[in-house]
Write a structure and sequence with these properties.
Helix content: 25-40%
Structural class: alpha+beta
Number of helices: 6
Strand order of the largest sheet: 2-1-7-3-5
Distance between the termini: 112 Å
CATH class of the domain at 100-187: Alpha Beta
Pfam family, one: Fer2
Bound molecules: FE2/S2 (inorganic) cluster
Domain 2Fe-2S ferredoxin-type: 99-191
CATH architecture of the domain at 100-187: Roll
InterPro entries: 2Fe-2S_ferredoxin-like_sf, 2Fe-2S_ferredoxin-type, Beta-grasp_dom_sf, Fd_pln
Keywords: 2Fe-2S, Electron transport, Iron, Iron-sulfur, Metal-binding, Transport
Protein name: 2Fe-2S iron-sulfur cluster-binding protein
Order of helices and strands: HHHHEEHEEHEEE
CATH superfamily of the domain at 100-187: Beta-grasp domain
CATH topology of the domain at 100-187: Ubiquitin-like (UB roll)
């Protein structure tokens, strides 16, 4: 009888030990190494760049650029110059010319150099002219050449807001417009 009880207890203990041995418990498991996965995901979010291939130093493929030749490069340079706009700093002292600009609303005619913009010239007279960015990026400083197509009277160092048709109607950005002729200007005019 006692033996049977001891045997039963022994068997129960064995069963418990075996069950504990195979149970998973809450042991700490080292996470899988996901660094490679993270790197790949990050790489997917970065746009492809035009890094030159080894032995190919021209961006976008050296072979093609060589084949295109000098003519096309010349055209590209020309386009860049056009987009960059006129640079008043490139006018040397002996190239500076002055034009008679009538500021209609202010009721005065002043001389403005071809390396001075219409806004600065007006402010030098003490006039409170409108402006915001002073970089050709808004319309706050807009004015209008009374005499017609503004292309014939000013050149812009930067114009990011006026369309070509608006410039042809006489509109200018006074903060980036430099005179190339005499004309009458209405300040505070926008299309
Ligand atoms: S002040 Fe913004 S374009 Fe002249």
């Amino acid at each position: 009888m006692v033996d049977a009880l001891g045997l039963g207890l022994g068997l129960t203990l064995v069963v418990i030990v075996v069950a504990l041995h195979y149970s998973e418990g809450t042991e700490w498991r080292t996470p899988d190494d996901i660094s490679q996965e993270v790197l790949e995901r990050r790489a997917e979010t970065v746009p492809e760049t035009d890094f030159p291939e080894p032995m190919n130093r021209s961006i976008g493929g050296g072979g093609g650029a060589v084949a295109v030749g000098g003519g096309a490069e010349g055209e590209l340079e020309g386009e860049d110059e056009e987009e960059a706009g006129f640079d008043p700093a490139s006018i040397s002292d002996d190239e500076v010319e002055y034009y008679e600009i009538e500021y209609v609303n202010e009721g005065e005619t002043i001389e403005v150099a071809n390396n001075e913009n219409l806004l600065d010239a007006g402010e030098d007279e003490g006039w409170d002219l409108p402006y915001a960015c002073r970089q050709g990026q808004c319309l706050s400083c807009g004015g209008k050449v009374q005499d017609g197509n503004a292309n014939e009277y000013v050149q812009h160092s930067n114009n990011e807001t006026l369309g070509e048709d608006e410039v042809e109607k006489g509109y200018v950005l006074t903060c980036t417009a430099y005179p190339t002729d005499d004309f009458s200007l209405e300040t505070n005019e926008t299309p």
